[in-house]
Amino acid sequence: MATSRITLAGACAASAFAAAGLFARLMNYDMRRDEQLYVSPAALLDHQRLYHDFFYNHVPGSAWLFHAGFEAFGDGGLLFSARLTMFLVWLAFGAAGGYFTWRLTRSALAAAAAVVFLVANDFLLGVTGALATNNLLPLPFAFAGLCLFALGVRGEGVFGRGVPRQGANPVAIFAAGLSLAIALSMKVSAIAIVAPVAVAMLLLPADLSLSARLRTVILPFAIGGIVGGAPVIAEFLRAPDIFLAHVAQYHTGPHIAYYHGRSGGDESVVMTTGAKAMLALKIWFTGANLLLALAAVLAITTAGAGRILRLGVPALAISVAASVAVFGFAPTPSFPQYFAPLTVALLFLFAVTFQPGDTAAQSRKSIALAVIAALSFVTGAPRLLQHGLKLGTPGTWTVSKVHAAGEAIAAAMAKAGVEGKILTLMPIYPLEGGLAVYPEFATGQFVYRTSDLTEPALLAKYRTTAPSRLAAFLENDPPAAMLLGFEPELEAPMAEFARVRGYRRVAGLTVKDRYGDGYLLLRPGKP
Predict the structure, then answer these.
(1) Contact 480, 433 (CB under 8 A)
(2) Alpha carbon distances (Å) from 259 to 46, 247, 263, 310
(3) Has residue 254 got a pLDDT over 70?
(4) 42, part of any domain
(5) Which of 200, 143, 505 has the alpha carbon at shortest distance from 341?
(6) Among the four residues 277, 392, 468, 501, which has the most C-beta atoms within 10 Å?
């Protein structure tokens, strides 16, 4: 009993230590361009409509999640609220990893290892999980959905109470459909995880009659999917052409055209299958992901044929891994975050094949797993603990600096008696100061930089302007101020307009970030 209490206390202390390190990392990670797209809507959705009033090229779940976070935590600032929301998602991810792995294995060691594989994952602790974007958001819901489906086809409930029923458990299957649909409402790429489960509904459990399958598997899963996917369904039904223009056609048209124009001079732009393969190998076969794959192989090779074939769930896990691996190569250009779902697939495969026991062979397997988990923590510790010493100085956090910059911009405008919209490709800064931005630039540079490459019929469905038409656009609605200095090429027409119209630079105000030294220009009197 005393040993158990010591073990529990140690686990709680380690969890708190890791959570503190994770929180510090999220609060101090450099702000990126992508966050202009994902975070800015959080401050706009009370009075503007997604897709219609400003550009947003993803399904709506992440925008509404960050908006909810802003409503709850917005007093600390816009970026702070989004990063804090990400921290809560991380906690949920770790909790889901531990809980569902324990439910599927009944092994405390396997559950603890699962948490380590997630929270100390050096890849997920990079841009994929440290930024307030939609890259990490679907993963905890996808993992929970997969595990709930596995439990459901075993006849087990969501919380493991009572004796497993014969056949499938419709409540767990409903929860699986709900969770997987939420994942899909966060990021379209979750379809690579949902699709194999949709096929598995027709096959698992294997001994169900058609009527029983409809009643306990297909209908509960479909109903859960409709409930979880309600935000996507609602946006699609409101205006299908506008929704598809943003979520689908932008990625298959202007987005690709823009990067084709850059790929010749930028080796970081991954466009070819060969380059994608090299990127995937770098992500999947290094660090924590390689160790997670090793743990999955260990579980498979020591599980025995009976465990592998039981209910076909391991086959589902393998099919999910294959699906997400193939789907990761589909988008062009390719970015590291596109290969993140394999982490979920490998963890699910580990959870459904790991078999604890008291034999000498099982003891050796447990020791091997403990070593793999320890190595995984070592690989992730430098990133996890990088900013830990800053916890006591919140004024030095990145989120605090961004908020302070927004307030400084607002103060400079108030001092000069200037009111109105700010023109910038970094809208988080003025939004932090409670200032107005142009709807055409409310989510950053992404649609603006592709507008001259977009077919007119498609362009008409976006709220935007283009570099070639910017001067005329600003003549009709001159900005009260401009925040420039981050994207010289894209900002060139803005800077030229400011020069011609006599905008004056505010002395002593510099907004520094990874993209440059931003400066504020104020209009010369009333336009």
Answers:
(1) no
(2) 33, 18, 6, 46
(3) yes
(4) no
(5) 143
(6) 501
Q: What percent of the chain has pLDDT over 90?
A: 80
Q: Which residues contact 471 (CB under 8 A, 6 or more apart)?
A: 493, 496, 497
C-alpha to C-alpha distance for 519 and 361, rounded to whole angstroms: 65
Q: Which of 23, 21, 140 is nearest to 92 (CA)?
A: 140
Which of 206, 253, 228, 198 is closest to 452 using CA atoms?
Answer: 253
Q: Is 53 a member of any domain?
A: no
pTM for this entry: 0.93
Instruction: Specify the pLDDT at position 265.
Output: 47
Structure letter (DSSP) for residue 163: P
Residues 424 and 369 in one domain: no
Are 487 and 520 in contact, with CB atoms under 8 Å apart?
A: no
Cβ-proximal residues to 412 (8 Å cutoff; 6+ apart), any chain: 506, 509, 520, 522
In DSSP terms, 366 is beta-bridged to none
> Does residue 54 fall inside a structural domain?
no
Same domain, 322 and 409: no
Domain check: are 291 and 440 in the same one?
A: no
The pair of structure tokens assigned to 29 is 């990670």
**319 and 436 part of one domain:** no
In a domain, 452, yes or no: yes
What digits encode the pLDDT tens for the residues 9-33?
666 777 888 999 999 999 999 999 9
Are 173 and 220 in contact by the 8 Å Cβ rule? The answer is yes
Can you read off the two tokens belonging to residue 316?
């589902």
Tell me, letter by letter, the H, E, C secondary structure of 364-426.
HHHHHHHHHHHHHHHHHHHHHCCCHHHCCCHHHCHHHHHHHHHHHHHHHHHHHCCCCCEEECC
Q: Contact 122/383 with Cβ under 8 angstroms?
A: yes
Contact 27, 398 (CB under 8 A): yes
Is the same domain home to 66 and 152?
yes
Domain that holds residue 139: 2-35+60-384
Q: CA 431 to CA 401: how far, in whole Å?
A: 14
Helix (H, G, I), strand (E, B) or coil at 209: coil
Neighbours of 44 (CB within 10 A): 22
Q: Are strands 504-513 and 481-484 parallel, antiparallel or unpaired?
A: unpaired
Angle subtended at Cα 182 by Cα 180 and Cα 188, rounded to the nearest 5 degrees: 85
CA distances from residue 260 to 256, 278, 325, 454, 488 in whole angstroms, order as listed: 6, 19, 24, 13, 20
**Residue 136 phi, psi (nearest 5):** -90, -25
Question: What is the C-alpha separation between 75 and 95, in angstroms, rounded?
Answer: 27
For residues 365 and 432, membership in a common domain is answered with no
- As a 3-state breakdown, the chain gives helix, strand, coil percent values, each rounded to 5, of 70, 5, 25
Query: To 10 degrees, what angle do helices 360-384 and 287-303 make?
Result: 170
Query: What pLDDT was estimated at residue 163?
Result: 57
Residues 364-394 pLDDT 10s: 888 999 999 999 999 999 999 999 899 999 9
- Identify the domain boundary among 350, 384, 418: 384
Q: What angle, 0 to 180 degrees and rounded to 10, lies between the N-to-C axes of helices 61-73 and 78-105?
A: 110
